[in-house]
Amino acid sequence: MNNGNGRRLNGETEEDDDDEGSEGDLDAWERTYADERSWESLQEDESGLLRPVDNTTLYHAQYRRRIRSLSSQATTARIQKGLIRYLYIVVDLSRAAAEMDYRPSRMAVVAKHVEAFIREFFDQNPLSQLGLVTIKDGIAHCLTDLGGSPESHVKALMGKLECSGESSLQNALDLVHGYLNQIPSYGHREVLILYSALSTCDPGDILETIQKCKKSKMRCSVIGLSAEIFICKHLCQETGGSYSVAMDESHFKELILEHAPPPPAIAEFAIANLIKMGFPQRAAESSIAICSCHKEAKVGGGYTCPRCKARVCELPTECRICGLTLISSPHLARSYHHLFPIVPFDEVSPSVLNDPHNRLPRSCFGCQQSFPNPGNKPSLRVACPKCKQHFCLDCDIYIHESLHNCPGCESFRHSKSPIATEE
Amino acid sequence: MPSAPTKLYADDVSLLVVLLDTNPFFWSTSSLPFSKFLSHVLSFLNSILLLNQINQIVVIATGCNSCDYIYDSSLSTNPGIENGKLPALCSELLKKLEDFVTRDEQLNKQHSLPPTTTSSSLLSGSLSMALCYIQRVFRSGPLHPHPRILCVQGSSDGPEQYVAIMNSIFSAQRSMVPIDSCYIGSNNSAFLQQASYITGGVYQKPQQLDGLFQYLSTVFATDLHSRAFLQLPKSVGVDFRASCFCHKKTIDMGYICSVCLSIFCKHHKKCSTCGSVFGQAQSDVASASNLKRKTPET
């Protein structure tokens, strides 16, 4: 990105790749001394040894703010989340996607992160389905239909990465609207638009299209790669989605992965319904059957639909013969942590730490890492409000982001938190 | 969240986290006495440490009221290390285990658990602690042993721990940590079978408990790299069917509430878990494709 001398003019030879920043005349190795000053990221500790600046507490403080804000929304809104999601990802492959402000090009960065997002999406929402749409030359094409298998989406995306032409937001919304109208009423309709262009070239009135989407209860979110655009902001405000603009590649990754966990559901948007689903048994190892997805004979290792007895290769899927949704109980269990989230841990205040009357645990309850002696530094431990055990900052992040169980609450039978009946 | 660990150590260095079941309700009725069981397990642990100089072992005890760390072979406070001899893990481990069991029983008395409740051990707690420890090992730098978890369990599954155990299993799957299970109880444990299947570990129920050391050392002592070319017991008949919330019977076709994912075996008008009324539009806009319109129940 050029912020110093000169705008980027089309058609002129550009040397901006080498001379970014305001000092056009310093070489890269000189810039590490003049601009980046790597020696400033070192600090002396008490014994005079050098060590890098402790970023963990800063990182942890940011992380805690994020968790706090998420949990305060959730508790006030009675934790209703849209667990069965039908999401379309719209990838903008117009001329603007070839810009090189993201290395190697916006398109390549978007494709890489969309792949990671697809895997994360199916990991967190096993009952949901995803589809891909691209915008090229002003026309929207459906790359893949709504489906539950990550491999087919990723393969289709990586196979067709070329960009040209204008971008048209209205065509994309019309196409997605047509597809999402056909899904069952209990599903949550969502669109995620990854927009690189700064304009949209539409055949009609886009505001009408936006009203149409709003009436069909589609939640549209946009992640911009260039700058904030009014029409995207209007679209997101009208439909209840979120609009964000990425500043760099790691920020883009963070923004897109924020859409992986189920968003808070707006109750009127989807009608509660009982969905008939099957729980197939695994076929015996030596059984031979013709599988309904590949149409060839396979030995052992598949699943049998309980209604029509057709063989399918993997779960979750929809039986091709009778249309029954087939899942296994772990797939449902993957979503239970959204319904029973754990409370954020509280920081242990330094006054408690320094009080000599308190008998404090010396090591983290989860990983047994010993805590450094409390001093005047910000506290490096957190405590669970229910079981009162102390944990280190890394365990805190792991517990809340991946494990979703508090080891302390699980390890003591009588310090119980209400967990609904299951199985 | 760390991704797959980088393999810079030699391939066969392993970190084994053993979750030992010390539930007194199970051991009082088991055919294998606890002391014999411990001798099998201790010989097994010693043999793991002999396989490679940098192998590590961590033992966590799963009680019926609490869980705790018993032994960590990487701590340098182990006695005997300065003589150049192999640290004798017996004495320290046994002492800590005894303290743990005593404390666990105290908790039993404090809360006066009625003896008729089906007592399960707190597997979810020890799995969670094991996973936190393994995350710490991942964070320790590029050179670390390959972790895996071995559950030696005899108590039956506690259905109240289902959600917590499934969360731990999925987290282990993401971090690529296999969970092996050696089940020494009477019927098969569905939770452990699912755990081993999903994470890529080995589930085995030994037929003859007095040869337990043989099962442990031939099946569970294998490190992750060698498993690619060894024939280990295959998973047979993992039951992934769900149980309905209303009768707790296993079903192979059921109805799922779209809001809270509760499973029912018959069509109901209202979800008993989240209270949503089915088929009823919650806003003014009529829905097109609904089966029936029900007036909301009071």
TrEMBL record, chain A:
Database matches in SUPFAM superfamilies: Cysteine-rich domain, vWA-like
Protein origin, superkingdom: Eukaryota
Annotated zinc fingers (C4-type), start-end: 305-322
Source species: Castanea mollissima (Chinese chestnut)
Stretches the record annotates as Disordered: 1-27
NCBIfam families: ssl1 (TIGR00622)
All copies of domain C2H2-type, residue ranges: 384-404
Family according to the record: Belongs to the GTF2H2 family.
Intracellular or extracellular location(s): Nucleus
Protein name per UniProt: General transcription factor IIH subunit
Chief localisation class: nucleus
Biased composition (Acidic residues): 12-27
UniProt entry keywords in alphabetical sequence: DNA damage, DNA repair, Metal-binding, Nucleus, Transcription, Transcription regulation, Zinc, Zinc-finger
GO cellular component: transcription factor TFIIH core complex; transcription factor TFIIH holo complex
Gene Ontology molecular-function annotations: zinc ion binding
GO biological process, one term: nucleotide-excision repair
From TrEMBL, chain B:
Localisation per UniProt entry: Nucleus
GO molecular function: zinc ion binding
Pfam families: Tfb4 (PF03850)
GO biological process, one term: regulation of DNA-templated transcription
Organism domain of life: Eukaryota
GO cellular component, one term: transcription factor TFIIH holo complex
Keywords: DNA damage, DNA repair, Metal-binding, Nucleus, Transcription, Transcription regulation, Zinc, Zinc-finger
Coiled-coil ranges per UniProt: none
Similarity comment text for this entry: Belongs to the TFB4 family.
Protein's job: Component of the general transcription and DNA repair factor IIH (TFIIH) core complex, which is involved in general and transcription-coupled nucleotide excision repair (NER) of damaged DNA and, when complexed to CAK, in RNA transcription by RNA polymerase II. In NER, TFIIH acts by opening DNA around the lesion to allow the excision of the damaged oligonucleotide and its replacement by a new DNA fragment. In transcription, TFIIH has an essential role in transcription initiation.
Subunit structure: Component of the 7-subunit TFIIH core complex composed of XPB, XPD, TFB1/GTF2H1, GTF2H2/P44, TFB4/GTF2H3, TFB2/GTF2H4 and TFB5/GTF2H5, which is active in NER. The core complex associates with the 3-subunit CDK-activating kinase (CAK) module composed of CYCH1/cyclin H1, CDKD and MAT1/At4g30820 to form the 10-subunit holoenzyme (holo-TFIIH) active in transcription.
Protein name per UniProt: General transcription and DNA repair factor IIH subunit TFB4
Record organism: Castanea mollissima (Chinese chestnut)
Lineage: Eukaryota, Viridiplantae, Streptophyta, Embryophyta, Tracheophyta
